[in-house]
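User: Some background: our group keeps a shared notebook of sequences we're curious about, and every so often someone picks one and asks for a predicted structure to add to the entry. Today it's my turn. The entry only has the sequence so far, pasted here. Could you supply the structure so I can complete it?
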Amino acid sequence: MNLAQALRKKNELVSKIGKLEGRVKQAMSYTEGRETYTQEDYDRMRDELATTRNKLLGLKQAMSAANRVDVDGTCVQDLIIKKGELKSLLDFVRQQRVMVDVGRINQWDDESPEQIHRENAKDLDTRIDDLETELRETDDQINSMNGKITVEWGE
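Assistant: Of course. Here's the predicted structure to add to the notebook entry:
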């Protein structure tokens, strides 16, 4: 299966685990007047929950291994790391941009003329635009690779 299909399967397993956990918790509690599960039903649900968790673990390991494979000289895992770094840097530059505005409004730097504030703001706006573009390109690269990567996983 390709990586996109593996991600969908992972979401299905996570959802199934949530439902099974709820049913197992319900089976473990006793409320008078409510129908209770038999021991066999409880054991079956508990076993199904353990099996589903093991499937999810195996799928995650297979996906992790697939993300380390080079596709056209690039590794998805490297792109995911790059995406995280770009997001952090973008947040930092955006904070700097806000601080330039706050400094101008509060006149923290009385000796700086308005021209310097405008130039700083313009430089930061350009940097933000460049980072947003690079982040979109990295996202597009990751998405295009999702269909090319094969996840070797046997349920």
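Suggested note for the entry: The helical segments are 3-28, 39-67, 76-106, 114-146. The mean pLDDT is 84.
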